[in-house]
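Anyone have tokens for NAD-dependent epimerase? Sequence:
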Amino acid sequence: MKILVTGAAGFIGFFTSKVLLSNGHTVVGLDNINDYYDTNLKFNRLKQLGINSQEATIFNNLCNSQTNANFSFIRMNLEDREELPKLFDGQKFDIVCNLAAQAGVRYSLENPESYVDSNLVGFLNILECSRNFKIKHLVYASSSSVYGLNKKIPFSTDDNVDYPISLYAATKKSNELMAHTYSHLFKIPTTGLRFFTVYGPWGRPDMAMFLFTDAIINDKPIKVFNYGKMERDFTYVDDIVEGVVRIIEHPNKDRIEKNDLYKVYNIGNNNSVKLLDFIKEIELNLGTEAEKNMLPIQPGDVERTWANVDDLIKDYDYSPSTSISQGVKSFVDWYKSYYK
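Reply: yep, here.
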């Protein structure tokens, strides 16, 4: 198939593109490469996919991979409602995998406009292009943050998610509502994936795994919020991408026949790990104990997440298999190698 992967220079988008290419698909990656975090990391991910970083800086110019004839890349904002339809018209995609978004819960308190531009206006443009250019299936990233103040554990897609506690979460819930509308009105199969705390090599510098490792290696204290009384469904990136790719490659015949065009799934490790246990794994791999600065919970944070992934197991035989010890070791090994 020919697949558009937005956010292709991002953490999950990079790995998703890599697996889709290895499975024989043609992939066009799209990313605006904004400076929310170190753009060198984004350019170096693209280098792994065969795109020269100099080429990737050319706006609205499709760059071809030097090492994989099935991959090309375009630098573009999703909110560009003039250029995005031209891309769809010229490329004739079968599937769209929308992983591009302004990420980060805490940053949404400081810069709300960027979330509206990318996550709302940009997603509307993706929906409009999917409608106008007859996309067979739109798979898109939602987030576990939509559960907000939900106290019921584990989180289920049957739970009420009307009480988000960050603008980021509100935009992700809005994406699900917008997708539902387009599935209902225009018969577009859409699948939303609520990601749960993804970590692994090439991960984002603003995520806990990266922040803790970086601080410990550089003999700096780590910030431990809610005085360590936090739990997360930490999910290794390979397990996440396996689920994403299964959904992309799975035919939609059954759903179309049943008129079941709109679906939302949790995608996580199906387990909850204490934050202090997670930190202990990092300490073991680095051979040193972290200096911990215990702090109150941050605005927009929740105390505990845990994904019920029963629906994904039933429908796609999804089976996350990477333990915390394996995943943390893999990240620490990558970090040491990448930053020498």
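The first strand starts at residue 2 and ends at 6.
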